Structure formats: C-alpha cells, structure tokens
Amino acid sequence: EVQLVESGGGLVQAGGSLRLSCAASGFTFDDYAIGWFRQAPGKEREGVSCISSSDGSTYYADSVKGRFTISSDNAKNTVYLQMNSLKPEDTAVYYCAALWYGSSCRWADYDYWGQGTQVTVSS
Question: For the chain: N or C, fewer Cβ within 10 A?
C-alpha cells in the first residue's frame, strides 16, 4: 500500500523555523519524485518544493527560495522540508505527494498524497 505521512507542522512565530517530514512507504522510492504542496483557505494548492529521489534535483517556488530547503534520506524513504524565516503568508496545510517517474512540481500531476500537516505562522 502506498502511504505518505507528513509530520512536523505546528505554530511558530514569524521568523521562526520548522522542519516537515514526509515518510513514504509501499513503493520504490527512487522511482518517484516527492513534492511539498500547500493550500491556504480560499487559495489554489501550490507547489512549494519538489525533489527527485533518484538524482536529487530540486525545484523551489519563487516565494520560498532562499528560505526553504528540501532534502531526502533515501535509506529512510523520507523527504524533509526545512522552513526558515517563516512568514504569516506561509500559513497553510502542507501536503507531501509522490509522482511516478516525473519531474513536475504541479499538484495535479501527482499520484499519491499524504493527509497534510498544518503550519501556522503568527505575526
């Protein structure tokens, strides 16, 4: 069974940091790209950062470049999103998703999704 489980969300003040984790199981990790997406109320789901587990190539949305870092630990089938210098506009539910043999960071292209973890950044 393909499963993605996010963790690490919470409440943090502006300027603070959080590290999200996405633990994947049920598939060959190297065959998938893993993406982090977020959705705030009334807004479209957007790609935040994506990584290919096979070659480590990464993508970042312009809004998070220089603040967020995506990384993977293939031995643990886990992808992380280190979020620094958080802003109130980063507040959203963050989802981990997997894409089979792809390099997209568009949410509609992804095949499997986790349940989401809430990130709230207070001003």
Answer: N
Angle at 35 between CA 33 and CA 37, to 5 degrees: 160
Which of the four pLDDT bands, split at 50, 70 and 90, describes residue 59? very high
3-state secondary structure the chain: CCEEEEECCEEEECCCCEEEEEEEECCCHHHEEEEEEEECCCCCCEEEEEEECCCCCEEECCCCCCCEEEEEEHHHCEEEEEECCCCHHHCEEEEEEEEECCCCCCHHHCCEECCCEEEEEEC
